[in-house]
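sorry to bug you again but im stuck and you know this stuff better than me. what follows is a protein written twice so to speak, once as letters and once as structure tokens for the fold. mainly i need to know what kind of three dimensional shape the backbone takes. anything you notice is useful, everything is just below:
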Amino acid sequence: MAMAVAPQHRESSSSGSLDKHLTDNGKYVRYTSEQVEALERVYAECPKPSSLRRQQLIRECPILANIEPKQIKVWFQNRRCREKQRKESSRLQTVNRKLTAMNKLLMEENDRLQKQVSQLVCENGFMQQQLQTAPAAADASCDSAVTTPPHSLRDANNPAGLLSIAEETLAEFLSKATGTAVDWVQMPGMKPGPDSVGIFAISQRCSGVAARACGLVSLEPPKLAEILKDRQSWFRDCRNLEVFTMFPAGNGGTIELLYSQIYAPTTLAPARDFWTLRYTTSLENGSLVVCERSLSGSGAGPNAAAAAQFVRAEMLPSGYLIRPCEGGGSIIHIVDHLNLQAWSVPEVLRPLYESSKAVAQKLTIMALRYVRQIAHETSGEVVYGLGRQPAVLRTFSQRLSRGFNDAINGFNDDGWSLMNSDGAEDVIIAVNTTKNLISANNPAQSLSFLGGILCAKASMLLQNVPPAVLVRFLREHRSEWADFSVDAYSAASLKAGSYAYPGMRSMRFTGSQIIMPLGHTIEQEELLEVIRLEGHSFAQEDAFVSRDIHLLQICSGIDENAVGACSELVFAPIDEMFPDDAPLLPSGFRVIPLESKTKDVQEALTTNRTLDLTSSLEVGLATNHASVDGSSCHLRSVLTIAFQFPFESNLQDNVATMARQYVRSVISSVQRVATAISPSGLNPALGPKLSAGSPEALTLAHWICQSYCYHLGAELLRSDSVGGDSVLKHLWHHPDAILCCSLEALPVFTFANQAGLDMLETTLVALQDITLDKIFDESGRKALFTDFAKLMQQGFACLPAGICMSTMGRNVSYEQAVAWKVLAAEDNTVHCIAFSFVNWSFL
């Protein structure tokens, strides 16, 4: 069929108003332009019409009366083939352009690296000569060659002086972006390639912290520059950006004087601000440059009352080099070089302010990802749920992040003030009586109140807890830390009954949460979703009325391989049919890794650490890893928690007491979870216990396999896999979902292999919170109830194909489920019930 397209295309292009198509018997059918037009209209509505639709088309269009239905069928087949070839050709051309540009970028990067190697060889030779001739005067310093000229000597108060500073800034920036002014090394875990976001590097030896990125973006240079200069739209930590002065540079460029403020990531450190010069100009080769650097002097700043909350940081020459690509799009180079004044923060936090990896993740990589996201949305390649436009969903994410940052920082000029402490300084209580959360379009549905907003926040240090694992656990298992009555209504409604969230009443939570995706970024480093918490009213008149709670939530940083990335879980209560301008009151968690100065933590820890039994599969290997974790490599991170509550003025003290107690309970729960998932919490000699009072994993694995063979007369594992310690390894990697539940009035799961955890979308830590009845649907529960007596009598039962449900609310189908009694080898008593779900898959 594809071969028929080529001659027909040549014929149609040369015949003008006629269109030829080759039929199955080898004859050409000629179509007039009117016939082709009629067929094209139908094709636009339905590319693959049914036989009835084609016959209807012949009846309705007299001009097609002389065409047989079979011939029309062939026309549509050829038309679809032509469309498919066109799309494939367009895709291949796009891929070819991308590969050509990427190849050019890699060759330039290779040339730069060769120059850097040559420079390092020369420096090394010079140092060796110096050491041999004058060892006493040798300079053992490892400072970079990057120097900042003393531009403060120039007059920054007139255009001529500013233009001179701008030109110097441009030269220094270009030497960093494409030259060897900084000793760049590849960002760990970010390998370049055709499918990668870009090429990322961090500084190895230089003053301050620096990161560099270069990549391809399918946007034109002017559009890219416009987006990146609007820093508040993509840099989540940018609180404010003001342009105080702007004037032409005389060479087609512009010079701007900027004052910007950057949120503090935790309650333990002050925020940063910058007074900078930004220079935008074009180069002779057609490239567009936006470069920026700090100016000396105090410059602009906040008022005296708020100045104490900021530390003036320094931006060394940084910016964007944007070059147009042949065939459209741009090649962009990004450099961020900062001095964040690490002296001004507690010593425990200084690694964060001295980490180039943190700057790369928060600023450099974020910029490149954002412009690529905009490019994908512009091309129509991104599809979102619930009928929301991409720009609206981006706004929701930005509002959640900004609201959470506002709560953590509590700036005075936003109306925040601290309440008196109860004597313990673990939880900070701040009050804002001026914040307005009224919805402009629908005031009746707004969070309007007379008192204000109260924020309870705290920060704590975590040891040996991977941030991505912790945040992923908090997201998937809300019942482990949340009090759902607090999600439903405030303490004021409980004590006085005079205030509650609109439409919410006292209720109980059923234990289920449904995650409904709204959208995600290209690499899925950030997820936007709606969480539905199922609940029912306590009131007798509303006993059968659903009182579900809905939360708008963003989750980011759950990739364990992202070195230096912080992990966040931020959420806010919303109405079920929330409008685009719905008022938001964000709360949540932020976990920031603090890299070790002695050793790269991410290289020492296992790359893909999960909450499973793999560490106990080989006892010797687990012992070695544990010794590394415990001695030379301490993964430290800072957890910041902030929860916001609305209140009426006469209930402020009550809400403050409730908020302080609630945050303390959340901290206690998070500490318990962190202990459970911490690698150092495992006994390296014995491996992890499945639960209190349970046998070791290896023993239970033997019991499961032996009982299966005893009851069903067949081997669960291959005969060569049941000896020694390998039985646990093979059971763990068995393709069928194998789970064990306790023999109680309300059976709960005590063990699952990897397939079982994947099917339930949970972890071993949270497995014991799942009861047997929760995973089966109604028919599955009936089948289990019917065969339960048979199971207890003969020792096993085979359940028919059915549907079960994961903890995330997703339906799972299985071809068969086998249940059998697991007997303890010592006394032959029934230890638990095992289930094997055969050929399971998500629907």
